Amino acid sequence: MKYTTRSKITFVAAFSNITLIILALVTFTLFAQYLLNKNVEIAVVTEAEEIVQEHLTISEDRVVYTKSSSDLTLEQHLLTDRLSAKIYNKDSSPIGTFGIFAQPDISDIDEQLLETAVKKTCSATAYKVMTNTKLGSGTYTVLYYPILRNGTCDGTVVVAADTHTTTALINLVIQLSIALLCVAIVVNILVGQKIAQLILTPLKNLTKTMRKMVVDKDPGKVAPLNTPDHDDLSQLVNTFNTMTDRIREGASKQRSFIMDASHELKTPIARAISDIDIAKLSIENMAGARQASTMLTDAQNDLKTISAIIDVLLQAAKLKHAALSFEVINLNELIEAELKDLHEVSKTMDIAITISINTAKVFADRQLLSLIIRNCLGNAIKYNKVHGTLSITTAQIGNTFTLTIINTTINSVTTAPQPESHKLGFNIVKNLCEIANYSMSATTQEEKFTVSIADIPKALAK
User: Fold this and answer.
1) Which residues belong to any copy of the HAMP domain (predicted)?
2) What is the three-state SS of 45-106?
C-alpha cells in the first residue's frame, strides 16, 4: 500500500510525540504507584514502632500489654490510625488480634501463612514488608516487625494496612493516563497534519510553478520562505529560483543570438539571390556574359560566407555542450597559425600586420581558444580597409593574459563601425568567451576598432 508524503509526515510526527507521551505517562504511573506504596510502607513501619515502644513490654520472656502515655489502649490506637495488628510471642503463639485479624473471614490458610512468615521474621531479626497480600476478602500491605531485646527476638508484631484506597488512587491515575493518552493521540494527529501542511506548502508551490513551466512555458518564481538561508527547503526554493533565472536568461540570449544570426545570414542570401537574378538576365540578353560571371562569383562568395558562418555556429554549439579539455598552449604559435590561414586575404587587402607578443603560455581548451582567435582575426581583416593596419598584442596581468586586437575601419570616424557592425562575429566570440570564462570588450575610436579578450589563465610552471 502506498501512502502520501503528507500521511507519512503526519504519522512520523504523531508517532514520535505519542511515544514520548506514553513513556511519560507510564513513568508517571509507576512513580505514583511507588510513592503511594512507599507511604503505606512508612505508615505501617511507624505504627509497628509505636506499638512496640508504647503498648508492649517483655515480662518473663513473654510479650505483655502496657498502657501508653496518652492513656490510649492498643485497640484505640489502631482504630485511630485505621490499621490492623496481631501480636505474637517468641514461640509464634498469638496474644492479641485487632482489626482485620479478628474478622471471621480470615481462613486457616491465611493463619498458617502468617505464622510461617512470623517464624521467618523472628529468625531473621529484621522487618519485612509484603505488598498486595490477600487476607480474607481484601488486599493488604502487611508488615512483619520483630520485637528485639539485646539483639534477640522476643516476639513479632504484624501490622496490616488496607490498600483499597491506594489501589483506587492508582486505578484513577491509570484511567486519567489513558484518557490523556487518547486526547494526546487526537491532538498529535491534528498537529502532525498541520506540520505536514506547513512543510509541504513550499513543495506544493514548486509543483505548481513547474507545472506552469510545462503548460505555459513560463519559468515563474516561488516566493522565498520565511526561514533561515541554511534551511533545506529555503535552499531548495532558492536553487529553483536561480535555475529559472538562468533558464530565462538563456532563453533571452538564445532569442537574441538567433535574431542576430538570422539577420546576418539574411544579408548574403539576399545578395546572392539578387546576383543570380542579374546573372540570369545578363545571360538571357547575351550581352553581359562578363557581368554575369562576376555576379555568379559574388553569389558564390556570399554562399561561402553563409557556409562559414553556419560552420562557426555549429562549432560553437558543439563546444557549448561538450566537456572542455584543458592543456598548456603557446599563445604566440596559436596566433601565428591562425594568421597563416588568413594570409592570402590580408595580402590581397595589403594590410600591415604588427605583432607584439611576449612568450605567453596559457592553460586553455585548444579548440575553443582557436575558434575565438580565428573569429576575432577574421573580423579584423574582413572589416579592415585596403592598405589598413592590424595590431596584435598580449599583456600579462597577474596570473592571466589579455589579448588585444586593433584594426583600422573601412570608413571615416564619423561612419566608423561600432561593435554592433561586427554583431554576429562579436556575439559569437562573446558567447564562446563566456563558455571559457573569459571577459571580452570592444570599442571604436579614431577609425580604429579594438577588441580585448581578458582573463586567459596563465599556465603555471611545474
Assistant:
1) 197-252
2) HHHHHHHHHHCEEEECCEEEECCCCCCCCHHHHHHHHCCEEEEEECCCCEEEEEHHHHCCCC
Q: What's the domain count of the chain?
A: 3
87-126, pLDDT tens digit by residue?
A: 998 888 888 888 888 888 777 888 888 888 888 888 877 8
Write the pLDDT tens digit of every residue in 203-225.
777 777 777 766 666 656 666 66
Q: Are residues 382 and 299 in the same domain?
A: no
Residues in the chain, pLDDT under 70: 1-6, 8-9, 68-69, 213-227, 229-230, 233, 253-255, 257-264, 282-289, 308, 311-323, 411-425, 461-462
The answer to whether position 211 is within a domain reads: no
* Domain membership of residue 440 as a residue range: 324-462
**Which long-range CB contacts under 8 A does 343-350 form with residues at least 24 apart?**
345/381, 345/382, 346/381, 346/390, 349/381, 349/384, 349/385, 349/386, 349/387, 349/388, 350/386, 350/387
CB neighbours of residue 51 within 10 Å? 23
Residue 108 Cα distances to 94, 114, 128, 136, 163, angstroms: 14, 10, 22, 10, 22
**What's the CA gap between 333 and 166, in Å, rounded?**
101
Q: Clarify whether residues 266 and 295 are in a common domain.
A: yes
C-alpha cell recorded at residue 349:
587587402
Distances (CA, A) of 416 to 154, 354, 445, 453: 130, 21, 8, 21
Q: Helix, strand, or coil here: 321?
A: helix
Of the candidates 172, 174, 175, 144, which has an alpha carbon nearest to the alpha carbon of residue 160?
A: 144
Closest CA to 78 of 160, 140, 145: 160
Cα–Cα distances (Å) from 267 to 107, 303, 338, 416, in that order, read 122, 11, 26, 20
What is the reported pLDDT for 101?
A: 83
Nine-digit cell string for 151: 539483639
